[in-house]
Amino acid sequence: MPGEVRWHNEASDTTRITGILVKASDINARSTQERVGAIAREFIGTPYVAGTLEGTPEALTVNVDQMDCTTFVETVLAMAVTVGERRSSWRDFLYNLENMRYRQGSIDGYSSRLHYVSDWIVDNSHRGNIDEVTDRIADCSYQVKTLDYMSAHRDEYPALADDSEFERIKSAEVGYRSHRFPYLKPSKLLSKDVVAKLRDGDVVAFTTKVPGLDVSHIGFIVFKEGVPYLLHASSRESKVVIDPLSLADYLHRNRNITGARILRLKNR
Questions:
Q1: Which part of the chain is CATH 1.10.3670.10?
Q2: By the 8 A CB rule, do 132 and 262 touch?
Q3: What is the pLDDT of residues 128-150, one digit of tens each?
Q4: Residues in Cβ contact with 55 at an 8 Å cutoff, skipping those fewer than 6 apart
Q5: Fewer beta carbons under 10 A from the terminal one: N or C of the chain?
Q6: Rounded-to-integer distance, Cα 90 and Cα 5, Å
Q7: Superfamily of segment(s) 130-265
Q8: d(CA 202, CA 225)
């Protein structure tokens, strides 16, 4: 179990984590994705709060009462891994959360957190936690971007006031110069053939036009009457919701979004 944990409220957090793990353990899920979707729905209504991970020194931060899009996805996936291991202890969840959130699964300061979604995908794919299935779902397009948003906007990240952390972030960004990644254009999500290959519980990451940034938002795909929707921690709704727009409409209404990447938790 991680050494230092920064709780929002240790008593209520551990109680809620254990309750969800026990409940999810009793679900007769037919697949890992179905388990992910079921756990994600447990957080509907949870307030949206940004910046809950920030604090000095860097520690494994746990807050199941307040979430942003990233902490929501990480928390759900770590819970799904824990249940897949046939465990229901919050201590096991902490191990899996650290493993999901940090480079090589271990905290080593602010810069060891996987801030860029592409970095998170590469690191967790390499360690066998997730699969990117974007290019298996349909003929995808590719985007090439240099990921340097954090170093280019240093003032937006208080931790980067520390020169050593700033240099470590810049060093991590070096590996993502002219980074090439797959994505599905919004028009692809209208195809019945593509929709048929999506799964309830898939992670969806939205690629963006913002310079220096690969992904601007992340959540889960859920199905209602055969149509994919987005289950996410929404800043607009100020809570975790199933978006009222279908996934295809959500993509079309957000002009800074260029498309979507689809990820799956490895089978457990």
A1: 5-126
A2: yes
A3: 999 999 999 988 999 999 999 99
A4: 6, 61
A5: N
A6: 12
A7: putative xylanase like domain (2.30.260.10)
A8: 17
